[in-house]
Amino acid sequence: MFSYIIRRLISAVILLLIVSAVTFGIFFLLPKLAGQTTDQLAQQYIGKAPTPADIAAVKRNLGLDKPVYEQYWEFLKGIFVGVDYKFGPEAARCNVPCFGYSFKTHIEVWPEIQSRLPVTLSLAFGAAVVWLVSGITTGVISALRPGSIFDRLSMGIALAGVSLPMFFTGAVALALFTYQWPIFERSDYVPLLENPFLWARTLVLPWVTLAFLYSALYARLTRAGMMETLGEDYIRTARAKGLGERTVVVRHGLRAALTPIVTVFGMDLGLLLGGALITEQVFSLQGVGAFAVQAITDNDLPKVLGVTLLAAFFIVLCNLVVDVLYAAVDPRVRLS
Amino acid sequence: MRRSVPVAATAAITSAGLLLAGCSGGGTSGSSGEANAATKGIVNVSNEKGGTLNYAMSDTPESFDPGNTYYAFVYNFSRLYARSLTAFKAAPGSKGNELAPDLAESMGKSSDGGKTWTYKIRKGLKYDDGSAITSQDVKYAVERSNFARDTLSLGPNYFQQFLKDNDGDGYKGPYKDKSKAGLKSIETPDDQTIVFHLKKAFAEFDYLVSAPQTAPVPQDKDKGADYTKHVVSSGSYKFQDYQEGKQLTLVRNPHWDAKTDPLRKQLPDKIVLKLKVAQSTIDKDLLAGNTQVDMAGKGVDAQTQAQLLTNSKEKGNTDNALGQRLNYMAINTKVKPFTNVECRKAVEYAVDKKAVQTSLGGPIRGDLASTVLPTDIDGYQKYDLYPQKYSGDKLDLTEAKKHWAKCGAGKVNTTILARNDRQEEVDAATSVVDSLKQIGVNAKIQQYPTSKYFSDYAGVPKFNQKNNVGLMMMQWGADFPTGYGYLQQILHGKAISQSGNSNLSELDDPEINKLLDGAVANPDKAAREKAYAEIDKKAMEQAALVPLTYFKVLNYRSPKATNLVSTSAYSGQYDYLTIGVKK
To answer: I want to staple A198 with a disulfide (CB 3.0 to 4.6 A). Which of A190, A291, B155, B442 is the partner?
Structure first.
């Protein structure tokens, strides 16, 4: 198990290196192929009417005058050993892990991402709990009573959940429960440790809205998996042995049906941890997703790289956890 | 389209504004409840102190550092904590273009034929830490904002352009040049006096020093790019807390003295600005009274606009203000067939401006335009060289076809550029394409993001030549509200640059250049305004651009805020210096 995890971590590091290299390539090489010069790139980060001296100084300060591979090396070096920068009267140290400074504002990237992580983590984990509980419960009940009114109704709602875009359901939820009937008054994110009640109250609507989308998918996956599993011979055997229905359904049926759900869950959670872009926008949450949107809008490479690597890290991490969980869920799986 | 004398007079006199507001609103606080009231006078006039004033905006400014910003709304907002040498008076519409001394005790005194400008700073001014503000701090602020652009790169560099002895390998900025003398073209003979030496006469220098770049910065507190996290205040409010990209909280500056400041009121106890709030949420919060001001001042979104305009009570809380901007389409005078003025004139007649106006959001988002200067900039004169005739909704193309025949280009292909993150601009370009088909111009739309529009595409003459770009959608607002501030960057030949160009028509008319250079050196304001009107007409005779609409915004005026007045100086935004909250 230990050596398996170490191997996976090494491959994760390699993957992250590839992701960062590709992001670097997309940022620098693609525009270059379209004819963009380094001066034009530098000019995006200066105000109006820059002189040639201004452009040269910006290129030098941002390191754009160096070859791309050298810039990439400097970026990697920053992550592992830190870098000294000078954007003011005195030189400043960007400590490990240094994801560099914004090309536009020259403010350090990592502390900004760090300050937004609690919002994104709260949003993603909270929503995940809601959608897992509601999605799997609905799926199991539907599978046990196929064709019933509950089954038809819940699968209909599930279909709506998958079909309706987040910016619609989010806006409707806000209009109804914040402005029309102010059950959940609009307030800014409150840290969990500062006030757990306010923390939850601020996030209920985003959780439910996000979970509405995902639980629909999970309900349908669970229902399909359960129906297939419940038709297996070993379930019939379990029942024939006189095991209680709850044991048959939960220990034998659900456990086997969970494997594909755990796989999808790993991907979904990983993606969300990298920033729930639309949910954060709709509910005006200051998470990593909102930061990513700003980074892309500003064409700000260090910021884009920071969020890309973070998102990739979470996806890799969640998949690793999922693979480890396989062994717990399915005894046939052995990690080696 | 200057405002009528009776309205202007009402707006100028605060007591009359009170009367007007009190009559229509019936409340003692002076709430008018009348549509466009804040474009005519100050609404809800009050000196009530206390409370928290809530601002919100859908985006996040790159910086709150007064020396590192170029947004009108930051210029407006930063005055709460940064006093420049001069500042705009809180007054409605184009009355708000009028300057008053702020940090300086009087307007600038020019000598040497307008090439030297001297200001005396008021006595007894202090920063929020209690230390004294000196003229050296103003000099330092100009040095860091204009000469350290590798670090503070986001603002304009007018001082770098206009100050003497700074061409080529001149002054390197205070972060590299550690000499005590610093920039030679600014002198500070004593703690109160600052003298600017310019390359050439510049009669509108008082406008330049109204930029927050002249707000004092104590050198020992300057952290370069990080200064935005805690700007040392010279205004009525000071930084309490700044969370990058999320929220800024200001509280009263205890060292600010109302006796030294005729412009600010310091009414709320606290000012909170929330960033990156969805526009639809901002609108809802404005209507619910949770937020009092949308800081960006770009107006409510389309859905809220429809909601407000169909509700007579809520409509009374809106201000449809001019934004000192023009939506226009530049015609590239260097790309065939538009090198021929007759071809350009044909385009002037052929573009269905009413259809374009609809695409841009209808009359509520802009009146039909026929001049280069917007109506709320001094020097504007109403005229229309290319009047359009409609029969019903159909544009009469007789004149357009006549000029196109004179141009002799026949059927042509061209490219029109628009910004893909501005849907209304793309819609307007689509409308232009439909119009031009009628005279034989087959235009293809190419869309690019705003962030690269000037640096990589429309603002790069070589790109335009290579890609047959004959037409470019554009919106332009003045950096300072004078004819020169508006026209120079889009019409002067010297403004043409190889990248980041804003003279998209690439017009280089010696007569226009000479008129612009002459006007800005002329100390006679009336003569300058006459020259600007003449330049406007000459540019239109050249058919260098097609004026589409005089940009307008629809702002929601929160009944919970006091002293609201929409000013042209900041694109129709409310003046942020004196706003208070009702308890």
So the answer is: A190
